[in-house]
Specification:
Elements (H helix, E strand, L loop, with lengths): L1 H11 L9 H11 L10 H6 L13 E4 L5 E3 L2 E3 L2 E4 L3 H23 L4 E3 L20 E4 L21 H8 L4 E2 H5 L5 E3 L5
Antiparallel strand pairs: 1-4, 2-3, 5-6, 6-8, 7-8
Helix pairs in contact: 4-5
Length: 194
């Protein structure tokens, strides 16, 4: 086993000591072209205002992006969406990967083009704290079929056909409240729950 590790370390160009540490993992990741999954702050850190996302409602932190496939909000086409500048490239890449995987026809069939919003300076449904939407780090999709209290299998985004949808978002560090807690399946955010 140790000789295998040493051989791999030599192949990826790190010190061949037979110990799998962070440098070995990073070298393997680079050799295979695997991007590092970002680790975003927790909701609590975001709400305290001491995270990389700054303060809620800061217009200077919001940027528009044009989705790579048509999105519809309450039946009207959406030309652009506003998100926090630090997640913009991740949102853009995730949507591009969704398009590449599903194609326009399946995106429409599954309701992945039904946009429920991103930046919105507001409290959570319970009113106890600001929503992650207030920082522009949360997005909602297919809200009618994935309402707040819908659980699997009623929530359409909980179905097996949508597994890749969530894997794509999670590869960018996003969290699904549906997959984590089995509620609010429409919602994804770039803040960890804990």
């Amino acid at each position: 086993m140790k000789t295998d590790i040493i051989a791999i370390q030599k192949h990826v160009g790190v010190a061949a000591d037979g110990i799998i540490g962070p440098r070995t993992i990073e070298a393997i990741r680079n050799k295979l072209g695997i991007a590092r999954i970002p680790v975003w702050p927790t909701q609590a850190e975001v709400r305290r205002g001491n995270s990389i996302f700054g303060r809620a409602g800061c217009e200077a932190d919001l940027v528009p992006l044009t989705p790579p496939y048509p999105l519809y909000y309450e039946g009207s086409a959406v030309r652009s969406i506003r998100v926090h500048r630090l997640i913009a490239k991740h949102v853009q890449s995730a949507l591009e990967e969704v398009l590449a995987h599903y194609g326009q026809e399946n995106i429409h069939r599954l309701g992945l083009d039904l946009y429920g919003g991103s930046y919105n300076y507001r409290s959570t449904q319970s009113g106890g704290a600001l929503s992650m939407h207030a920082w522009g780090i949360a997005l909602d999709f297919s809200p009618a079929a994935n309402a707040l209290h819908y659980k699997a299998p009623r929530a359409t985004l909980s179905h097996a056909e949508c597994r890749k949808w969530w894997e794509i978002w999670e590869s960018h560090g996003a969290v699904s409240l549906g997959r984590e807690c089995d509620y609010d399946w429409m919602h994804l955010q770039f803040a960890r729950l804990k």
